[in-house]
Design a protein that fits this description.
The protein is of the alpha+beta class and 358 residues long. The protein is built from 10 helices and 19 strands. It starts with 8 loop residues before the first strand and ends with a strand.
Amino acid sequence: MLAAENLGGVLINAQHNFAWLTGGRSSAINSSIENGACFLLVRRDGERFLLANNIEMPRILGEEISAADFEPVEFGWEDEKSAGDFVLKKAAALLENNSALASDLFFSSETRPVENLIARCRYELTDNEIERYKKLGKDAGEAIGKLFKNVKPGETEQEIARKAKDALEAYGINSVVTLVGADERIEKFRHPTPTVNIWKKVLLVAVCARREGLIASLSRIACVGEIPGELKRRTEATAFVFAKFAAATNAGTSGAELYRIAADAYAEKNFADEINRHHQGGATGYKPREWVAHPKNAEIVRQNQAFAWNPTVAGTKTEETFLTSESGFEIITASPNFPQTAIETNGREIVSTGVLSL
């Protein structure tokens, strides 16, 4: 990428890019911002550097990465704070022949931000990333599946959200998005952030579960007693759209094509307008969504890429994460104790998670 763009190097500061370049390690201190506590510099000739102040360097080298992989460049924290372009100048001095420096985040008008190009370098997963992803998906699916044995009607959405986070933390997983909706809030809102609303009949829990930088997304719905016929009908419709998405997620297919296929699937189930009420998901990896399907999306599906589709109809949702490969795709977020909905499309039976009756 650096050669194609005629860049001398790229300065990396975003937490998700640090995790990607270091095989799942972390530069996080303040999780409310995108910036990490240090910088990585990748030079066009392949040399790699770690730029960090004297507060962070000992911990990063002692617990996250090795000086054998990233050459340390340390400086005083006072110097870093003294000038907004201090680290940029440090990085530029390490480049060859006064070549151009780029960055993942915007720091200065003199440094070109290239996050969109870095993202495309992240899309195709390595064998190690695929192995980590499969384990993450399995653990996240199990954790949220077990959650429903430990929640009960009468609890607030906030109480259930806390239990969801704790269930994931038991597997070393952090929930970067935690949505909980009970009863009428599921119908009203596509992103029900947890409130003091009390769960009575139907419960939705949706998470974006992160471990070692990678993120798996899944949604689960449970119902007290018999599942209403309308909830079944709507959930079967979202499962149908999900199946159409999954079957069409093949290398070379564009985000716009995938959107059109989903729109046709919604219409076939007599819910044509629902596609306009929420995004449908898309590529995932080190961000909850790297890109989402929409009518003008020119991004294409790649081999060994992760996807999380999340079709919704008011009151219900189907969401799973899967990996693409030459042989097709593999859903990695199954919850063993949940019922399954099987949809046959394109000669294959595609299984997603149904509504659990408690």
